[in-house]
Write a structure and sequence with these properties.
It is a single chain. With about 160 residues, the protein is mainly α. It has a domain of about 70 residues. Helix content is about 60%, strand content about 0%. It has seven helices and no strands. The longest helix has 22 residues. It is globular. The relative contact order is 0.09.
Length: about 160
């Protein structure tokens, strides 16, 4: 995995080799867990083999491998372009979502049909217009936070 990063900008006190090791581990763990939430059946070890060696796991679908590789590609993009989502906009969220859904049978852009979350009573917003308005409001709220960790937590909570 080749990350092109300015080590002094992102992690000023760490050696570049250590940063790459940590980013490799993050890519594997984040891709695996995020995909698992979506129903992916790759194990953590199979995910590591796929991301490091491009070795697909037997008995798994092409879409499962694609999902994992897309998560890695999105993370690579964010690391290579640290200012891309500053300020955070609906457009930048859409762009990251497009990276995550590349070559998968998943609609891009804001959904325009009702969805549910199995096993919960939660009812998401129904219309495309309500969702876009909520996303715009979320972006504004996130931008008001001065601390990057607060911004990340707010983005996680509000976009989810």
């Amino acid at each position: 995995m080749n990350y092109k990063i300015n080590s002094n900008r992102i992690f000023p006190s760490l050696h570049l080799t250590n940063i790459k090791i940590e980013l490799d581990r993050l890519a594997i763990d984040l891709s695996w867990k995020s995909s698992q939430i979506e129903g992916n059946t790759y194990s953590l070890l199979e995910t590591e083999r796929l991301l490091k060696d491009k070795e697909t796991a037997s008995g798994k679908t092409r879409d499962e491998a694609t999902m994992l590789l897309n998560h890695k590609a999105a993370l690579d993009f964010i690391i290579a372009n640290p200012d891309y989502s500053n300020p955070l906009t609906v457009s930048s969220i859409d762009d990251i979502h497009t990276l995550l859904t590349k070559e998968l049978d998943i609609n891009i852009n804001i959904r325009n049909r009702r969805v549910g979350i199995t096993g919960t009573n939660y009812k998401p917003l129904e219309s495309e217009f309500e969702i876009k308005e909520a996303l715009i409001d979320s972006c504004i709220l996130i931008q008001l936070k001065p601390n990057i960790f607060e911004k990340a937590l707010m983005a996680l909570l509000l976009i989810s």
